[in-house]
Amino acid sequence: MTVGEQEREQHHREVLDGPFSTRQLIRLDEALRVADNSTGLSFSVYVGDLDEPVRAHAEKLHGELADADKAVLIAVSPNQRVLEIVTGAEARKRIGDRDAKLAALSMVAAFGGGDLAGGIISGLDQLSTHAGRA
Amino acid sequence: MSVTNTLVYFVGIPTLIVVVIAGLIMLVSRGPSNAGGDKRYRPGRPFDFTPVWFLSTPEQVTQPEKTGRKTLPGGVPAPAVRAGGETDSARTRAGVTGGASDRW
Fold this sequence. Notes:
The complex is a heterodimer of chains A (134) and B (104). By secondary structure, chain A is of the alpha+beta class. Chain A is 60% helix and 14% strand. In chain A, strands 1-2-3 form a three-stranded mixed beta sheet, with helices on both faces. In chain A, helix 3 (54-63) links the parallel strand 1 (42-47) and strand 2. With 104 residues, chain B is mainly α. In chain B, 42% of the residues lie in helices and 10% in strands. The longest helix of chain B has 32 residues, at 3-34. The chains are: A alpha+beta (134), B mainly alpha (104). Strand 1 of chain A pairs antiparallel with strand 1 (52-55) of chain B.
């Protein structure tokens, strides 16, 4: 096994150690790809703890994305029970704050029922619908 | 039919069947929790997992780790993400971000 293969193996184990099953990961990947391709924006999903202040941390993560203006970050912290949706300057013109709030409400409803993956996927779907086609 | 035969046919065999089925059910229900634990998220209970960041193309992060990680959806381990954030604080202030927040 080469070093690259070992790294990849290790990475796979880390992802599978995450909050989602393999089947959910596949659905999430598909949802992200469809959202990106149909809107031309770049969606990303972060699931993990956020430092206080939560909003600032989410915005910092958003700033790390390559094309931050066109990026939409969905940050979910299951342990803190917090959801943050961050839209870049360009993305904000297509997904208004009100639309983002609407998506957040439906996602939070799913999270409250314990369905992390389902909430994220339906949120991605709503956000990309609001953004419209590229 | 002798008493012994009657007992074997009408008590022994049914008991054996019941024990085998119960054993199988116990094995199946205990199996997944032994291997890796029950990972389902339940609100209000501590949920232990590795943080993940999904992108449709992992190269979108400004400091991508080594490429060749397309087999699974670009989950980037969070420690790497945090380390990258400290070096480019200038980027984070660029433009006005919008969005929404919520709790559950």
